[in-house]
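TICKET #2291
ISSUE: user wants both folds in one file
ATTACHMENT 1:
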Amino acid sequence: MPIVYSTDPDPEPQPKPTLKPAPAKGQTARIWRDSKRRKGKTVTVVGGLHHDPATFERLCAELKKHCGAGGTVKEGEIEIQGDHREKIAARLQALGYKTKFVGG
């Protein structure tokens, strides 16, 4: 029976495509240090990666453990507290990523 009226903007849900996690090989992780909007505290930011949220969370947890620091995933970027650019670059290269330092 067809729907005559509905307040739902999408009355018939479409199946969501499943995203396969992109492989590490071939991706370039851009690494930079940032302290803006953080009351002067320095964080190391890893961006430019294309993964699903679960993969970002796993990678963030691994980097936090490797650096011995806190961190989070925000808007598709991983933020690790402190200046750990060299450690993070070495770990990402060991995982198969290419790395590129951005900024000063």
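ATTACHMENT 2:
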Amino acid sequence: MDNHQDIDERSLELHLLIAQKIRQNPALFNKARATLARWRGVVCQSSQPYLDEWEALMTEGLEACLSVAVERSQRAAALRQASPFTGILTNQERFAFLKSWKTGHAA
């Protein structure tokens, strides 16, 4: 079973992949904005501050937002737990990443 540090590291690596994909196709940033807007009405109240922060970052622009998404900090790790970038990778891309991660980080 993964410990919290492993989960945070996997999330960071996943977001590095997502950031790379968005930089190659900046229109995908709008998909994350749409996800954030959709989540506003359905996520629990305790997640709303994270969504507020993502919204503020998105207002600052693509690079400002992505730089935080891939930052190695406690703040960024907490934000990644409520990341609006979840739908950027296809299922195939996500599964390939997870398989590679599991192989590379086997206990």
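RESOLUTION: both attachments delivered.
EXTRA DETAIL ON ATTACHMENT 2: The two ends are 9 Å apart (CA to CA).
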